[in-house]
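DATA SHEET
Item: assembly model
Revision: 1
Owner: S.N.
Input lines:
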Amino acid sequence: MRVLVTGGAGYIGSHACVELAGRGHELVLVDNFSNSSPLVAGRLATLTGREPELHRADLRDRAAVDGLFKGRGIDAVIHFAALKAVGDSCRRPLDYFDNNIGGTIHLLQAMRAHGVGRLVFSSSATVYGDPDGVPVREDAPLRVTNPYGRTKLVMEQLIGDLCTSDPGFRAVNLRYFNPVGAHPSGLIGEAPGGVPDNLMPYVCQVAVGLRERLAVFGGDWPTVDGTGVRDYIHVMDLARAHADALDFLVRGHRSASINLGTGQGTSVLQLVRAFERASGRAVPYEIVDRRPGDVAEVYADPSLAHRLLGWRAEHDIDAMCRDAWHWQSRNPGGYADGPAAPGGAAAS
Ligand code: NAD
Ligand code: WQD
């Protein structure tokens, strides 16, 4: 198939592109590089053996989005492009609604106009907010707690309404839990700008010497060791699920919302120890106050993904830490710092 990948230069999108190319799909990537680097194109060329067709465009530009579909014979869309930082979304909610929902509306309008009826959408476990219990199933109540989460919920609802109104339009919402890790080559990975919000990139930056110590947000949660528990999922497992979701749509199945997690909870301190084992580096930390908005324990019931997609996570926390460290140690400052890759960026 010819697949349009929005946000294809980003962390999860770039890994999905490697998996999709490996399964023989032809890819058209679009990104505005608001949170990524055009240098990813060269790395993707190395990994897939082919220069990606990568367009610089903003999904808020309706004409540009429509233009991506013209004459390209797009069969399906995987929609990663979004702003994703919870704290940032509390500071500038309008930008999040404009970018995430506005961009998605243009994308869906262009899909309808060009008769493209298959969508895989990057949703998030954030739609469950503070769940009543774990493991979390897809039929748990949806109640978001911040503007970023609200944009994800509204986008799921928007996509759901479109599927109801048009039997020719089908979508899979993939609700990721906590994506971490990197391609085992160390050529692509997560490259956050500024101070990382998320645990794994912060731990990586401490281990590589960019930051002094990790602040552990709370040591008094009602969990195994008092620190927060999450369901970390290797980005290569996530990547595989996107290709599986496309196959699911091609087989003609109805729309669905599906959790992507391992089903295993890992505490902050368990992750720190696993990372120390994998990297051979010490990760100094101190326990500080809880972070506002955090919850004690969230992990997935991933059984629907197995039933519908035949998908299961294959990587454990040790593999996640090993690959995150491999990427970080080869590219201490992100893409600009890494080993030179053949081929230039093909951004148009
Ligand atoms: P990312 O920021 O690395 O990737 C998103 C990409 O989209 C970036 O390259 C960015 O430049 C691009 N983009 C943003 N707005 C755009 C616009 N208007 N037009 C064109 N390009 C635009 O983030 P990621 O971690 O790869 O996340 C991918 C998707 O998965 C997002 O939708 C995110 O909300 C969702 N998600 C991420 C996580 C996580 O923890 N990483 C968890 C759950 C869900
Ligand atoms: C994990 C654990 C923290 C940083 C967020 C979003 C969610 C989704 C994934 C997009 C928690 C603790 C963290 C640090 C710490 N994103 N921690 N010190 O909060 O589960 O989920 O990313 O959809 O929407 O909310 O992930 O990595 O920030 O935190 O102690 O410096 O690590 O308290 O227990 P979170 P996280």
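QC remark: Residues 84, 86, 124, 126, 178, 197-199, 202, 214-217, 228, 230, 268, 291, 294 surround WQD (ligand 2) (CB under 6 Å).
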